[in-house]
Design brief:
This protein is mostly beta strands and 70 residues long. It has no helices and six strands.
Length: 70
């Protein structure tokens, strides 16, 4: 399985961290420190779009420069 490299882009209007990989936006819907990331694509690939589809379970993820948490 390929590694998903997520580059930090900022926080959306709900204060959730948004990342980008190969032109696709992702959002961490559980950005609490000490918790596992819950990553979903962004609906219509819009920065302030709603969370859409979760990533495939077991996908290896690398956060660049690091994971943004609350």
């Amino acid at each position: 399985m390929a590694k998903l490299i997520l580059n930090y882009k900022g926080r959306d209007s709900w204060d959730r961290p948004v990342y980008e990989s190969e032109g696709r936006l992702y959002v961490d819907i559980n950005p609490r420190e000490g918790c596992t990331a819950s990553l979903c694509t962004k609906y219509r690939n819009e920065f302030d779009g709603e969370p859409d589809m979760p990533i495939t379970e077991g996908t290896e993820v690398e956060f660049v420069p690091g994971r943004d948490v609350w």
